[in-house]
Design brief:
Elements (H helix, E strand, L loop, with lengths): L13 H19 L1 H12 L12 H27 L8 H28 L2 H7 L2 H37 L25 H7 L73
Protein name: Zinc-ribbon domain-containing protein
Keywords: Membrane, Signal, Transmembrane, Transmembrane helix
InterPro entries: Zinc_ribbon_dom
Length: 273
């Protein structure tokens, strides 16, 4: 009897997860590139030029936007994985767990930052009473946290969708193990008698060709012709030739001259024959 030693649930991604992960990658990448893109826009819009917007060096950039960069990479991996499993059951519970846990951590972290900027910071004063460049800085700093928060929320929804599909799936992978036969097990009882086996399996040794036998050329089998029945032919009968009787010419009884055949009067004397 087969024994089930490993079970695993698999499901497909669908178009919804592909779209969610794609938009999450766009939003998280926009949040990670907010500093260089914002500095470029600031120098082109406002009169006073700046060299540093938020992060002066690479270490400060990683400290500020490291979570957004990690979320962008995670979203890209989720997009390609879901694209491969769009019509096939390849996603398991581990993938759904990553889609739920990591975006949840990002949402909690960015939620705290959004609360700090909007409530504890000077966001309202800068928007209502500050200059245009101050409004731009505050709005950009808020976008650095809002965009990754939305991206993480999209991935979190996708993870819940995959988890819901896995709950409705059956165990797809089963590896059966054949039962081991003990060494002292009795031999199986044959289903046929020795006489039936002798008829069922004829000895082919008598039909075995010796090793030094010459190869036999295949010859075409000629079918015997069946003679057609015809009527017996009678031998021709020989007929004896009969002699032809030759009659002597007729003569006139009066003058003795020869007469023509069938003549009634003599052409010499004129008398009737």
């Amino acid at each position: 009897m087969a024994k089930k030693i490993y079970t695993k649930k698999l499901t497909y991604a669908g178009m919804s997860l592909c779209l969610l992960s794609f938009f999450a990658f766009i939003l998280s990448a926009a949040g990670a590139l907010a500093d260089p893109v914002g500095k470029l826009v600031y120098n082109n819009v406002f009169t006073n030029k700046i060299d540093v917007l938020f992060t002066p060096d690479i270490f400060a950039y990683v400290n500020t936007y490291g979570l957004s960069c990690a979320l962008a990479i995670f979203s890209l991996v989720a997009f390609f994985t879901s694209a491969r499993a769009k019509g096939k059951k390849k996603l398991d519970g581990a993938f759904a767990g990553f889609l739920i846990l990591f975006p949840l951590v990002v949402m909690i972290t960015k939620g705290i930052m959004i609360y700090y900027v909007t409530v504890k910071g000077h966001f309202s004063n800068a928007i209502t009473m500050g200059y245009d460049n101050d409004k731009f800085r505050v709005a950009l700093s808020l976008a650095d946290d809002v965009l990754p928060f939305i991206a993480a929320f999209l991935l979190f929804i996708g993870g819940l969708v995959i988890a819901g599909r896995l709950m409705g799936e059956d165990f797809a992978v089963e590896i059966p193990v054949a039962a081991k036969t003990p060494d002292n097990a009795p031999a199986p009882i044959p289903m046929t008698t020795p006489q039936e086996q002798s008829f069922a399996q004829p000895d082919m040794s008598q039909f075995r060709k010796p090793d030094n036998a010459e190869p036999v050329m295949s010859q075409s089998v000629v079918e015997p012709e069946i003679p057609q029945q015809t009527e017996p032919i009678e031998p021709p009968t020989e007929t004896a030739e009969q002699p032809v009787e030759q009659t002597a010419p007729e003569k006139c009884p009066h003058c003795g001259s020869e007469l023509k055949s069938g003549a009634k009067f003599c052409s010499v004397c004129g008398n009737k024959v």
